[in-house]
């Protein structure tokens, strides 16, 4: 089953309430996904600063002296803030490659959840409410973000099988549904040198989008071609630095409801997830069409594109 | 009139109270407050009562309805009036996918649009939609009437049996074995009554009728893959 929520603020005065709004939406979707939960939040970028969210099952050990070690390795300033099993590392934007190379080589106990300049991803096994409490999600400010509650079908209930999945710098994906050709696509992508960690179907979807974008597609083009290449059921919600997008497979079994007011655009697997948003009574509420890519961006006008 | 705050009292208490009503009840009108998209509101009713839901509902509102009139003053989630036997369900807003699925009887009126798979496998229900309907509507529909004042999506009436489909606007595509059929005087008479029942401001002459070509009733090797 799984539940998806998404919130994109048009009115910046709501930014301080962003964490509370998105967390309430996430917890309402507990019935749809009690196995694990995750949230991707875009809190605004500092010019020239990179952000890396990392996770460890043994945070006391893994994060001890991590900032110092990383500082030494990249020869630059590193700021680290630990939240439960996750830590956000901040450093100069041009040091991302060096920082990731250091982590890959020297910290096998640490997994990268997200990379970019503004995106932070927090996800863990457990009920959405407990995941939200562990990471203090209610207090997070943001401009937009997406969340997911998982009912596992295609692979084990683990942190790495939880959503959202990072698909590129400041890009992420959540998924409701199940892909049926993920084994074949995983083989193909691995053959092309793409790193895929788990047996999870959505990770393959995320890796597919990453690969498409690395080989010249825009996000919109990658989503459009996913309608042709990915077999199975899906409602995808994607987050980017500037906004978020929605696409459903042509059969559109997996539910999706959107609401828009002058203050925000919101997505929920069910209307229940949206009922406590301000002004929902007068919002435009609708279901996104199948096989159509929708996109809202802080930098540009919204787009809707029907796949051919 | 009975007033029931769903948020305060909970779904089980609501449906138990509604199930306790009989043909001779004097509690004939119920207002449900704060539905907030909850699932399974007013399912399995079997009494001639009127239930007004003051807001939008989640999955399966008014499923398996008998006799009752359920009026949703908002939009309805997936499977509204699923497997209805008799009575009336009215949705003021839009309805999500598979509205009126497998319905045996009664009338479902949707004042807004209906999503995909509206009337899938319908078996005698009358569904009247003021707006548009989505793809795969009336898939394997067996009997009953589907009236659409707006447009229909892809694959309308795929593999249908003897249900009658009336569409005023465009049909994006017809499903396998579904064809346009002649509007005869008896269909105009039938549609006139349906449009009146649904409170539609439309003339029966503006509609086209679609039905089964009856080519899939018997096994044909050319239809196999």
Describe this structure in words.
The complex is a heterodimer of chains A (308) and B (225). Chain A is 25% helix and 33% strand. Chain A is an alpha+beta fold. Chain A folds into 2 domains: 3-44 and 143-306, Glutamine Phosphoribosylpyrophosphate, subunit 1, domain 1; 46-117, Alpha-Beta Plaits, CATH 3.30.70.2540. In chain A, helix 6 packs across helix 7 (201-214) and helix 7 crosses helix 8. Chain B has 225 residues and is an alpha/beta fold. Chain B has a domain at 97-214. Chain B is built from 3 helices and 11 strands, in the order E-H-H-E-E-E-E-E-E-E-E-E-H-E. Chain B has helices at 6-9, 11-19, 185-197; strands at residues 2-5, 29-33, 50-53, 69-72, 88-91, 107-110, 123-129, 143-148, 164-167, 178-181, 208-212. The longest helix of chain B has 13 residues, at 185-197. Chain B is elongated. Chain A binds chain B through residues 251-253, 255, 257, 270-275, 285-287, 290, and chain B through 36-38, 56, 58-59, 75, 77-78, 93-94, 96-97, 115-116, 134-136.
Q: Which properties best describe this structure?
A:
heterodimer; A: about 300 residues; alpha+beta; Glutamine Phosphoribosylpyrophosphate, subunit 1, domain 1; Alpha-Beta Plaits; 6-stranded antiparallel beta sheet; about 25% helix; B: alpha/beta; 11-stranded mixed beta sheet
Summarize the structure.
Helix content of chain A is 25%, strand content 33%. Chain A is of the alpha+beta class.
What does the largest sheet of chain A look like? 7 strands, antiparallel
Shape of chain B: elongated
Which of globular, elongated, flat, extended, rod-shaped describes the shape of chain A?
globular
Strand content of chain B: 15-25%
Helical segment count of chain B: 3
